[in-house]
Every structure is written in C-alpha cells, then in structure tokens.
Amino acid sequence: GQQVMQIPQYQHVQEGEDFTTYCNSSTTLSNIQWYKQRPGGHPVFLIQLVKSGEVKKQKRLTFQFGEAKKNSSLHITATQTTDVGTYFCAGPYSSASKIIFGSGTRLSIRP
Amino acid sequence: DTAVSQTPKYLVTQMGNDKSIKCEQNLGHDTMYWYKQDSKKFLKIMFSYNNKELIINETVPNRFSPKSPDKAHLNLHINSLELGDSAVYFCASSLLSGGALDEQFFGPGTRLTVL
After folding, report:
1. Nearest CA in chain B to A41
2. Distance of alpha carbon B107 from alpha carbon B34, whole angstroms
C-alpha cells in the first residue's frame, strides 16, 4: 500500500540553528499538506503544496514539493523555542478521499 | 469560539467497558473524521463521514462504531474496551467532500486510558 515516510524521526537543535524534515511517498501525490502539533496539542494545518517543484514560504518556514511530486521538505531557518513540536506531512492516497499522515518529525530545541 | 470540540478531554476506564466520545464542529463543514494517535505519535484515520454518510472505514475493529446524527456532529462509541485502545483520539473536519485538497481542522483530542 501507499506509504509516506518522514525523516528524521527526532531532531534536537540549538536555538538559532536550522532544521529540515523530509517526506517521501512511495507513489506520486496530487498534493501534500504539512501540519504542526505542539506537545500536548492537536495537529494544526500549516500549508498545502499542489504544483510540481512548488516552493512556499511562511516567515522562517520554507516548504518544497519535489519535481516528481513524490517528496517534500520543510525547512525552518534560525529555530526558536516556539518551533518545538512534531511536524507531519500528509498526502492523499488511493482514488478515495483519504489522507495518510507521515510518521512525523519531533523537533526539540536547546535554548 | 472553538471550531472543533470534543468531550471528554480525558477518559480513564476499565477493560471491557463501553464508552463514547463526542465531537462537534461549528465551521459548517461537510466532512468529519476520527483519527487515532498512538504513543509513538502515529496518526491514523479511522472513519470519515460526509454529510452524515460514512465514506471511509479503515480496518478498525467492529467494537468501534461512529455515529453522525447531523453533519455538525460525529460521535465515536467503543464497546468492550481493550488495553490496546489506549491512545489519543482526534476528531477533525474539512470543508468539502473529504478530498485531500481540503485543510483539516482538528479538535483538541480525547486521551483514552484503558486500565
């Protein structure tokens, strides 16, 4: 079946360092979404990418969708303590209205 | 105003009991979902309803039965609770017919602990 893998599983960085999480799908995706879940919280939608090679920015966050639409990345520049949480990518699978979440990357930050 | 609300927030119960979790959204969305998040943070879809009709039913034990009295509500009833049911259950909603192009709005979650 379709799988959406995320790496790394954990990342511990010094505040101010950059952070990147990668999402890889076993099949081509029509679109990909990114969510952030703070510790003890619920997933919150960040962005959706639809076009091949698309790059979108939200302040210090940069999202990319691969040319083949099988992978995506989220890069955070100069991390802050407010960036702590688990970042999930999510993509549709099969022809039905389903969405599959990646395994998530948990970001922790040393102040 | 809370967009997607769930009750209760915490649920601690004994094995073998039956329990329900309620979910309500005031966003006017057509589609609602139930997700299970285990201790390793994996988020897995369980059910999806569009306008009170079941459209996704993943491989979930029959002990789990969703019920949608109207499109603003999607409740989850669990019979004969087992230890492995311990998890955080999230309700979510999206605007259109559950298409993956839709942003999903999640509720705060219900932490279920089965003893």
Report:
1. B108
2. 10
